[in-house]
Design goal:
The chain is α+β, with helices and mostly antiparallel strands. It has one domain (2-183). The protein is 30% helix and 26% strand. It has six helices and ten strands. It has helices at 2-17, 21-28, 34-37, 83-94, 99-111, 155-158; strands at 41-45, 51-55, 61-64, 73-79, 122-129, 131-133, 138-140, 143-149, 170-172, 180-183. It has an eight-stranded mixed beta sheet, with helices on one face. Strands 6-7 form a two-stranded antiparallel sheet. Helix 4 crosses helix 5 (99-111). The radius of gyration is 18 Å and the shape is globular. 26% of the residues are buried.
Length: 189
């Protein structure tokens, strides 16, 4: 009986923390280019904290609302062809698999044909911040990064360095199915 009561209290507390679908959608699409925002499909959270489709899409973009359990803002928008890859990443995160390990597992699954990955370049936009103000629809301390997945790209095929840079694009996971170009502009101070 006490466990049931505690579970109900926890569920009620989470429901109070989960923003409305409209607020989640407005925040999530901030990561996408302006001309793609209105047509993007948006994934977010229901009152129990479960991932749900908040809005059907009309274009090729998927956007994810920030996790209401986190105090920081994090939204991502990506081409729909990346959805299996991104969904597998969310699944691994839920299983408590860490960042580098998560990438290694997904790249191996792609190479083994267990996980679909587009053969053409596809873009992921990631917007982070220290918070989101729903009233003004603004992200506090915004930082936008771009990730362009280019399967099997190498430094030779792209002309890019594999060294992390804030002043130029660089290549991560070269030669793998998950090879991607990172564009990380300098953070504003």
């Amino acid at each position: 009986m006490i466990r049931t009561l505690l579970a109900l209290v926890a569920t009620a507390a989470l429901a109070a923390e989960v923003p409305s679908p409209q607020v989640q959608i407005a925040g999530a699409v901030q990561a996408a280019p302006a001309e793609l925002r209105d047509g993007a499909a948006v994934l977010g959270y229901d009152a129990q904290g479960g991932r749900v489709l908040l809005r059907e899409g009309k274009n090729s973009m998927f956007c994810l609302a920030t996790d209401p359990a986190k105090t920081t803002f994090n939204a991502a928008c990506y081409h729909k062809d990346l959805d299996p890859f991104m969904a597998r990443g969310r699944e691994l995160t839920a299983q408590k698999v860490t960042g580098a390990q998560r990438g290694e597992i997904r790249f191996k699954e792609i190479e083994e044909g267990k996980l679909a990955m587009p053969r053409e370049p596809r873009t992921l936009y990631v917007l982070t911040g220290s918070g989101y103000d729903a009233a003004t629809n603004t992200v506090k301390d915004p930082y936008l990064r771009w990730v362009i997945y280019v399967p099997f790209a190498t430094p030779e095929s792209t002309g890019l360095s594999t060294k992390s840079s804030e002043s130029a694009p660089w290549l991560m996971a070269p030669g793998t199915a998950g090879a991607h170009i990172m564009i990380s502009p300098p953070k504003k101070k």
